Amino acid sequence: MKNFYSFSLKALFSLLFLPFTIHAQLVIDQSVTPQELVADYLVGTGMNVSNVTFNMQAGDAVNNQIGLFSGQSNFIEFNEGLIMATADAQVALGSFGGVVTNVAGDPDLYTAANIGGTSFSVNNCAILEFDFVPDFEFLSVGYVFASTEYPSFTCSAYNDVFGFFVSGPGISGPYSNGAINIAVIPNSNTPVGINTINGGPTGGGTHQNCLNANPNYVQDSIYFVNNNPAAVDDIQFPGMTTNLYANYILQVGETYHIKLAIADVSDNSLDSGVFLEGASFSAFPLTSDGEELARPVMMTAFPNPANDIINLDIQTHEAMDISVRIISPTGQVVMQPVSDLRVQGQYFQQVDISALNKGVYFLELTDLTSGDKHVSHIQKIN
Questions:
Q1: How far apart are the C-alpha atoms of 64 and 34, rounded to whole Å?
Q2: What's the pLDDT tens digit per position in 244-285?
Q3: Are 84 and 262 contacting, i.e. CB atoms less than 8 angstroms apart?
Q4: What are the pLDDT digits (tens) for 114-127?
Q5: 374 contacts 301 by C-beta, under 8 angstroms
Q6: Cis before residue 229, ω within 30 degrees of 0?
Q7: Which of 61, 113, 109, 68 is nearest to 89 (CA)?
Q8: Which residue segments constitute the domains of the chain, with CATH numbers given?
């Protein structure tokens, strides 16, 4: 380390006024155990976690496929968090080492990688699992998916993929133990992966391959960041997603299980990684029914839970232009029963929700003048 006092005062003042920004060096620390990474760095507010494992091994053993990521990047909004990779996690900084063990064939990653009807193998899996009990209803975790498959092998067989598979009370999905994958493209149920978010076909890939994986992949290219050639002193993956969030509505005080997993697809090379935002694995309360906005309005929905019909009762103290939407736990608008309606006093409407899958949904009322939102939740039980 250089001696500070070796600088003259003149040199010091010249440095203070130079027009540049000093970035903290990017570091991946692999000396931290998965258990410590989850408890001390990943978990934020409203969460209690236990039973951490990595690649089906006890969480108190270090593994070179997972580590603590820190430092400032031009591509990742958070400066600290976890990284999991399908190789030595140092691949994110340009080191292309091997993996400790080649965990292959995970059934959930296989399903996510082959949603278009393909049968690609999954290899070099990195699988972090733990149980958790939320103190509040709304689960959220921030992440960035990145890969060396970008931009050379997109819309091909090399559809590297990952998922956040959540199972527990009130959840019924197509993955192991009835889990669902909450790491999906915003406003959709489409898993995030090479063939679902990219800049178009390359390396012999075809437009149809990406259409099979994600019919909206062209529009969803807004979530893709091209880093080719890789920026100096920054993340060395040549492509990645924008910063995304996985969300879901849970039952307070119940025990859930999550599997955060990533894999190479069809081969063991050109590795991928997922960055998990530090302290972002959190649970937050939903706004309770009847809470007032800045301009007084109340909305209740009954019966709740419901089978086929819910009744909306909206009361305002002054004339307001409003809309009401029903939103899935992953952020997809599934219904808009009220659109640009002027209400004064009381408004009542029956809404047929029979076409919705059973589960919990957001009920969002928006004051179209102020933009204020009232958010509650409803549950469909059949």
A1: 10
A2: 888 888 889 999 999 999 999 888 778 899 999 999 999 887
A3: yes
A4: 877 888 899 999 99
A5: no
A6: yes
A7: 68
A8: 20-284 (no CATH), 297-380 (2.60.40.1930)
- Can you say whether the dihedral through the CA atoms of 18, 21, 22, 25 is positive or negative? negative
Out of 92-96, 177-181, 241-245, 342-346, give the one with best mean pLDDT: 177-181
Which one-letter DSSP state was computed for residue 9?
Answer: H
**Global pTM value:** 0.76
- Residue pair 145/163 in contact (Cβ under 8 Å)? The answer is no
| Tokens found for residue 144 | 């960035």
Q: Cα separations (Å) of 84 from 127, 235, 276?
A: 8, 14, 8
166, 159, 161: which is closest to 182 by C-alpha? 166
| CA separation for the pair 114, 220 (Å, rounded) | 19
Per-residue tokens: 329? 């736990």
pLDDT of residue 3: 33
Residue pair 236/26 in contact by the 8 Å Cβ criterion: no
Q: Is the pLDDT of residue 20 over 60?
A: no
State CA 138 to chain mean position distance. Answer: 13
Q: Buried (b) or exposed (e) across 236-271, using 16+ Cβ within 10 A? A: bbbbbbebbebbbbbeeeeebbbbbbbbbbbbeebb
